[in-house]
Prior knowledge:
The protein has helices at residues 22-27, 44-47, 92-106, 120-126, 144-151, 166-180, 227-248; strands spanning 32-33, 54-55, 63-67, 110-114, 135-140, 184-191, 205-211, 214-221.
Amino acid sequence: MERPRSIFPRWETQELRFRTDAKRCSSSKVAHRGPLDAPCRLRAPAARLNCAPMRTNDCAISSFDRAGESGTGSRSNEGLSMRPLGTDLPSLAVLAERVGASLRRREESVAVVESSAGGLVSASLLAIPGASAFYLGGAVVYSRRAGRALLGLTAADLAGMRGETEPYALLVAGRMRDSHRATWGLSESGASGPSASPYGDPPGRVCLAVFGATSVARTIETGDVDRATNMDMFARHLLHLFDEVLRARPE
């Protein structure tokens, strides 16, 4: 069956070559760390957690979960962090349609902050007719200066923390949600390539976060060094994670 095309054809490059190793998947350790406090209270202890990454087609081996204000107070990440992510992710257009339809049914809203994806997540959501019913705003935060200007991040907020980590992804997703008074906040922070990031993270590594009634963070490694390919994959993985969160919650 033909793979769905992206609404951004220039980002559609050759299929990635992923490693498929059943032994790695079966032996991966799943680490739940939570519940987390509000994002503005994340500090150095959370930032120093050893967030082991996963590779596409392996099992997720690191995630956070925070029960939402309207929830029961119990952790509800089961079924999200242990699910293997395949190489056959739908296109951005398909994923955005799924998420948009879910948000409309629930009468919920989302705000998005991106880094290495460069705005592809926001663009895919805004390409849906009537997106104003659920999309409240977005930002591309590509430097600390942008973080101060667009998110109001202070030195105290970032104490002991750096970008391209799960605690940071949760921090900015929560800040974006709160500043827009949205139901959900989404974020990604990673290294799209072709070289490693200033932090030393390899190209193709990204930390994703969904912040809301259920909050989850996940680390992905695509194993690819192509910049455009990774930008597209980062955006698709973030919407895929958000789609999982929405489907796991009762309507």
